[in-house]
Amino acid sequence: MERQTPTDAVSKGKFFYIIRNKAIFGLHQANGLNVQYLYQDGRMVTSARLVGNIQDKEMLKLLEDAEGFRKLVCGIGVTAELAPDSEVKVDKTLFCTQFYGKAEQSGDGTTITKEIPLTGAEEYIDLNTVEWTGNDRVLGQFRFEFAEPNVTATVSVKFYLNPGFDAPEVIPDRVVDVQSEKYWNMISKSVMNLGNLDRIKKAIDDARAGKEVCIAAIGGSITQGAGAIPINNKCYAYLVYEGFCKVAGVKPFTNVKYVKAGVGGTPSELGMLRYDRDILADGANTPDIVVVEFAVNDADDETRGECYESLVKKILKGKNNPAVILEFAVFADDFNLQERLSPVGYKLDLPMVSTKNAVLPEFNNPDKATSLIQRNEYFYDQFHPTNVGHRIMADGIIEIFKAADKGIKKNAAIGDGFVDVFLVDKKDVPSDIIIHEGSFCDTDEMLQAVEMNYDVTQTKEFPYNYMHNFGAEEFRIELECKKLLIIFKDGSGPQVGNAEVYADQKLVKTLDPRKVGWTHCHPVIIINDEESKKHVVTVKMQQGDEDKQFTILGFGVVK
């Protein structure tokens, strides 16, 4: 817990928390740093509401850009304390506050650094002493850097206010009792549909009998483990695996295999293409149970649910007849897509768990003193759960393991035209598909990377790609298909350019990697027909961008 001298609030003025008692983990990065990033761009207003209990619209508006931030905030208070169970012991961390620039996300904005002892004592950063660059657009991120990897700590960040601004009283911390009857009553509300549990029952029986069983999860950043500290064994996917082992009466990592494949910011449109590579591992894994979590990522799915249903059916028709459990997570603004996606589960009579159904009544309880959990306790940031949030997600799924039902219907609820989709890239090009790389002949090494399975190190997504650095020669793929997707890499900076995609000499899409603004895998449908026929699809750099970078990560093909 944070320690604070009684005179802090008096001497420095009024304040509110933007981060409070948050667990962090110094993960070793490709750039050599051991760091926990806490991104604020687009998230800080929500954090101020959730963590700081700020409701004043003027104050929230000022947090939206750097100019307003400096009008509101005069100083930053930072505390950090080494976790008692930290794998590595160090005595300090480097705290960095980075403002994103007007011209570039990084590079021309102000960065403020301060060494913080890991004792729980508060360190104060006086913003009046900072030399500002004059190019600041917004406070983009906090980060905590460590001399060694795998350091676990608890941190808090306060914003001290300039005269004329007020802040509400700090609400005392609470501990969510995950053993209480009230907790399990809440969890029971998350079981949206028991569905047919025959496949799950078989997996439990097989595991108990000592047979090889594989439990897998695929989804977005929540499945990746974002918000869980440490990410590898406190994320909901691992807790589900651990819960399955407990129900079956076996020890983890004996005869039960664990596969986790979450990639931040990606929809089922990409998940259906990643399934063979990331879950099946090109034949190395044969899942018995697969949790599918895309209910907060599928807003950008071009098919509005067909890719989701296609992924589900693709899994169900797998070699081992695996069970599928649909998990409907939730964002801090109550958003998810369970109304759109749950018809798939009802039609196929699948087990479905809605974390939203469980926690929203607690969030919206007007008597906060009697609510089991509040938003700031559930959410690590506006998108991702805390450790207790991951625990709630997992316990809802573990309830499914304890239940039974029967019956399945296989009619498409939305559409299933992508059930037979497969991935094509430099590693796997079928003999009947012709690819001419043109000036897209390099291989991009700077890729979105995520913590897979039980790893704390990161694995790069789509490493067998086609990268353009310079030149005007087009990329060409010739094939017979009825559906085709292109996956490209999003990014930022002046070195990145746009590409145009032509199908049979007709311009279909102009792909702008800078639209999303971060290193990210982006699937787009190019061809979506009912009948298969021959096509020639070309990709070329937009005029004027021939000397810029663009990466084709791969293609999704339905014959």
Radius of gyration: 24 Å
Number of extended strands? 25
Number of helices: 14
Give the amount of beta strand, in percent. 25-35%
Q: What low-confidence regions span 5 or more consecutive residues with pLDDT below 50?
A: 1-10, 404-410
- The backbone outline, from C-alpha atoms, is globular
Global mean pLDDT? 92
Secondary-structure-derived class: alpha+beta
Task: Note the gap between the termini.
Answer: 58 Å
Biggest sheet architecture: 8 strands, antiparallel
Give the fraction of residues assigned to helices: 10-25%
Key traits:
559 residues, alpha+beta, eight-stranded antiparallel sheet, six-stranded mixed sheet, 14 helices, globular, disordered N terminus
How do the strands and helices of this protein lay out in sequence?
Blueprint (H helix, E strand, L loop, with lengths): L7 H5 L2 E11 L1 E2 L5 E6 L4 H7 L6 H6 L3 H7 E10 L9 E10 L9 E7 L5 E4 L9 E11 L5 E10 L19 H8 L2 E3 L4 H11 L4 E7 L1 H4 L11 H13 L7 E7 L5 H12 L9 E5 L12 H11 L6 E6 L9 H11 L3 E3 H9 L11 H4 L8 H15 L20 E3 L9 E3 L12 E3 L6 E3 L5 E3 L6 E16 L8 E5 L2 E6 L8 E22 L8 E9 L1
Parallel strand pairs: 11-12, 11-13, 13-14, 14-15
Antiparallel strand pairs: 1-9, 2-3, 3-8, 4-7, 4-9, 5-6, 5-8, 10-15, 16-25, 17-21, 18-19, 20-25, 21-24, 21-25, 22-23, 22-24
Helix pairs in contact: 6-8, 8-14, 9-10
What does this protein look like?
Mean pLDDT is 92; it is low at 1-10 and 404-410. The chain is α+β, with helices and mostly antiparallel strands. It is 22% helix and 31% strand. It has helices at residues 8-12, 44-50, 57-62, 66-72, 181-188, 198-208, 221-224, 236-248, 268-279, 306-316, 338-348, 355-363, 375-378, 387-401; strands at 15-25, 27-28, 34-39, 73-82, 92-101, 111-117, 123-126, 136-146, 152-161, 191-193, 213-219, 256-262, 289-293, 323-328, 352-354, 422-424, 434-436, 449-451, 458-460, 466-468, 475-490, 499-503, 506-511, 520-541, 550-558.
